Amino acid sequence: MRGIHMKKISIFFSMLSIFLLMSGSVNVKAATSSPPEVESEAAVLMDVNTGDIIYDKNANKPLAPASTTKVMTALLTLEKAKLDDKVTISKVPPTAEGTSIGLKEGEIYTVNDLLHGLLLESANDCAEALAEHVGGSMDNFVKMMNERAKQLGANNTNFVNPSGLYEPGHLTTAHDLSLMLKEAIKNPTFVKICRTQVYKFPPSNLDGNEKWVSTKDELIRKNSPHEYQYALAGKTGYTTLSKHTFTAAAEKDGHTLIVSMLYSQSKQFYFDDAKKLFEYGFKNYKPIKLYCKGDEVASYNVTKSLSVPLIATKDIYYLINKNDYKPNLSDNDIKNNLAPKITIKSANLEKTSFKQGQEILDSDVTVKGKELCDLKLASSIDREYKGILPTSASYKNIKPFVLALAIAITSIFLITLRKYIKFKKKQYILRRKYDNITQ
């Protein structure tokens, strides 16, 4: 009897071992830690590579952004102006309400100086000076801000001023604010300024006084109680009606996340909550690169004799939950499990000319059979269509016998034409002689 029980136990453990071996490949479900609770009225945790929202609380609720508005002001300035542009302060910026660095009418500073005042000190007079310089007027700059927001997909945003001072209708959302910071951190100058601890303005051309500004972002400020080693860039905000607002980016092991929070009751809350959200994102999620910008990812038969190699025009990522995979799996193993696929949308390019690097085709990227995103594909060769035969920078795509046949036909035609001309010329000479004799 005991032998039978031992045999059953042995069979059980054997089956268990087989199961464990089979399950040790890719997918392993484990408990995902719950996201932290945040105090602010609205909050978002966004993955930068994919744009995926990892956590949201009232993500699309319009609220007053306060000085996080200055992210857009800085973005437009960096896109439209040069850092060494000279800006002469008009009579308007010195009258700006709220935080300022005391600009005076007639002072001259560079765009770089004013950007430091804008992003570090959160100076409203710097915001208005930059708005006038870039937009020509405050109203036109605000129009530019709203247009740029729509281009970024920030469709629930409406700006009324460049500084973030509370005004009716001056609104954004935690999601929209994240989109704006996502675009801003692509610019290394924006990140560099945000990471600056202290900046000294040159002496004023009017009175020689020097202005000093320092960062108010405690995730970046050295030795602050909230200093965060992975903090990349950020912008704080506050008005009595908007309450505290904050947007920040952090990077760890090549993974970049953005946190945006609106209508928080205190700095203590939003700095702590931002760090908690970042840690939650880094611990539980990871972007997997499926395709690299510039890599050959497919080919397309333009004609029967010409196949064009196609390259990706941007990096494509897929965000995974780390708890769904064994920790020792490589990114390549995970990518293979995701089974990404590029499906080219049909197009007739037979009579089309294009250059190397030119976008020529659209495609869909799918992961495990589900559509992920669109991807534009570019040609890796030049191709010129001339009506009869296409010519390409890469003649290796034209079969040799086709080229040889074309040369042979051309040669025979030229030889025949030459003989014909010679024959006609001979006939003409003989006819002239005959005419002379008969006369």
From TrEMBL:
Pfam families: PBP5_C (PF07943), Peptidase_S11 (PF00768). Pathway: Cell wall biogenesis; peptidoglycan biosynthesis. Its EC number is 3.4.16.4. Residues 31-261 form the Peptidase S11 D-alanyl-D-alanine carboxypeptidase A N-terminal domain. Residues 1-30 form the signal peptide. It comes from the Bacteria. GO terms for molecular function: serine-type D-Ala-D-Ala carboxypeptidase activity. It catalyses: Preferential cleavage: (Ac)2-L-Lys-D-Ala-|-D-Ala. Also transpeptidation of peptidyl-alanyl moieties that are N-acyl substituents of D-alanine. Substrate binds at K235. Gene3D superfamilies: DD-peptidase/beta-lactamase superfamily. The keyword Transmembrane helix applies. Keywords: Carboxypeptidase, Cell shape, Cell wall biogenesis/degradation, Hydrolase, Membrane, Peptidoglycan synthesis, Protease, Signal, Transmembrane, Transmembrane helix. The chain crosses the membrane at residues 401-421. PANTHER family: D-ALANYL-D-ALANINE CARBOXYPEPTIDASE, D-ALANYL-D-ALANINE CARBOXYPEPTIDASE DACB. This is serine-type D-Ala-D-Ala carboxypeptidase.
